[in-house]
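User: Okay, second chain of the day. Same drill as before: sequence in, structure tokens out.
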Amino acid sequence: MKVVLVLCLLSLALAAPPPLSYTTDSKNAEVLRYENDNTGLGSYKYAFEQSDGTKQEQQGELVNEGLENQYLVVKGRFAFIGPDGVTYIITYVADQNGYQPEVEQGPGGAVPDSVVASLLG
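Assistant: Same drill. Structure tokens below.
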């Protein structure tokens, strides 16, 4: 159940409006890098980077596989350029204790309260 909740929260975070772009046409951002390693046996790792400044990397590992207290530990980070021109970097762990994000930002001001609240639930 917690794994489903974590994946739902992650989906919401990724469904945010597209960030401002390094290119003049953010709707046509190009994939600069894509890596995907998923054996289908409980652990995975992927990463991508786009020409509009969006980046993400994530890895997951199944803990206590086959036991009653089995759970997925997901670690990762994503970055995007906000409407204010600031690069935001979210580093997170999602495990049996829930989704635990840490928000960093580049120069240009504080993280808006609404962004922090939406990430922390």
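The mean pLDDT is 78.

User: Thanks, on to the next one.
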